């Protein structure tokens, strides 16, 4: 290992980075609150105890798949169906770990596989923005993820406890908060005009899969993401030739 | 505060499946060095994942959702404050639904 590499590795996971991640994530927690409440309320409606609800939210920590699995909940619990639902819905996270390569490649052992265990959409988006700014401190990712995990547990618990008190109708504007949060993360991810074609293609393909072909999750996301990325890559390689 | 065995088994199975998704992509790509095309593609994946997730979700909400999403995007681009962007999105959706009746 050269001296430069040695120095590089030392800055791969710092307390300062964690602090920055915590601060960045706190601004986003507002957007995750309604979704956590929804998961807590859904779990209560399906007869899960508070302990079971918190255990699920703490270990799975992936809201969309939790809502889906709870939607097909049975008595006794559907072990295979719930696991398959998580596998399919959370497949979108596989390319996230790959995209974080420049950050994760400098880690080993528990720091590497533990950071991956906490990976979640919004923390991923924040970390991508960090990478674009030239910073590769995995502490940032873990700090941001931990804030989101604590917030997630608090909100799922609150939703479960007050399930009857805060019974909002399904389409209430408050539920738009989680989409608005994802909308806002597009801004720091945007790199410039070269992103336009792949992004438009990704959106069109997802709409085609969802609206025209009538495919359910995760196919619109997978088709859109892979198709958009492929179109961008094809254009870049042709330009380089 | 009950914890039933069948529920615990389902939760653990969900947790394992989800961890495989989180770590699996990275674990595979760490061993296999991807060709240039795949590397170029990976650079575009983050943005494309979010766009591909958001477009169908907004489409389900109709034109008020598109309007609200645009509002959140513009507020974030102008002020760089996520909490403000979220409030703008929710408020815009609420207003547009009122207008739409």
From TrEMBL, chain A:
Signal peptide: none annotated. It is a multi-pass membrane protein. It is found in: Cell membrane. The chain crosses the membrane at residues 21-42, 54-73, 80-104, 110-128, 140-166, 172-189, 196-213. Keywords: Cell membrane, Membrane, Transmembrane, Transmembrane helix, Transport. It holds the Pfam family AzlC. Belongs to the AzlC family. This is AzlC family ABC transporter permease. It comes from Siccirubricoccus soli.
From TrEMBL, chain B:
The chain crosses the membrane at residues 6-29, 41-59, 79-100. Keywords: Membrane, Transmembrane, Transmembrane helix. InterPro entries: Brnchd-chn_aa_trnsp_AzlD (IPR008407). It comes from the Bacteria. This is AzlD domain-containing protein.
């Amino acid at each position: 290992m050269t001296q430069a590499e040695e120095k590089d590795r030392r800055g791969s996971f710092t307390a300062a980075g964690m602090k920055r991640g915590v601060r960045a994530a706190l601004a986003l927690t507002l957007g995750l609150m309604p979704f956590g409440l929804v998961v807590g309320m859904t779990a209560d409606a399906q007869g899960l105890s508070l302990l079971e609800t918190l255990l699920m939210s703490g270990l799975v920590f992936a809201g969309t798949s939790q809502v889906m699995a709870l939607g097909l909940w049975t008595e006794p619990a559907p072990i295979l169906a719930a696991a398959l639902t998580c596998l399919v819905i959370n497949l979108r996270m596989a390319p996230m770990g790959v995209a974080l390569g420049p950050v994760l490649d400098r880690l080993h052992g528990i720091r590497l596989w533990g950071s991956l265990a906490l990976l979640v959409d919004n923390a991923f988006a924040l970390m991508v923005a960090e990478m674009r700014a030239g910073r590769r401190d995995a502490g940032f990712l873990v700090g941001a993820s931990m804030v989101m995990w604590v917030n997630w547990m608090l909100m799922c618990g609150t939703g479960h406890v007050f399930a009857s008190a805060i019974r909002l109708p399904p389409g209430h504007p408050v539920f738009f908060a989680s989409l608005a949060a994802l909308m806002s993360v597009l801004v720091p991810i945007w790199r410039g005009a070269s992103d336009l074609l792949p992004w438009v293609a990704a959106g069109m393909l997802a709409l085609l899969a969802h609206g025209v072909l009538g495919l359910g999750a995760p196919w619109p996301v997978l088709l859109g993401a892979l198709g958009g990325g492929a179109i961008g890559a094809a254009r870049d390689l042709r330009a380089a030739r | 505060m009950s914890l039933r065995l069948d529920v615990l088994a389902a939760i653990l199975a969900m947790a394992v499946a989800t961890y495989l998704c989180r770590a699996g992509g990275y674990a595979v790509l760490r061993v296999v060095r991807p060709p240039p095309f795949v590397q170029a593609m990976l650079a575009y994946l983050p943005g494309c994942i979010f766009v591909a997730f958001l477009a169908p979700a907004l489409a389900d909400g109709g034109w008020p959702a598109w309007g609200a999403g645009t509002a959140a995007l513009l507020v974030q681009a102008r002020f760089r404050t996520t909490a403000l962007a979220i409030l703008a999105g929710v408020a815009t959706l609420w207003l547009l639904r009122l207008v739409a009746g």
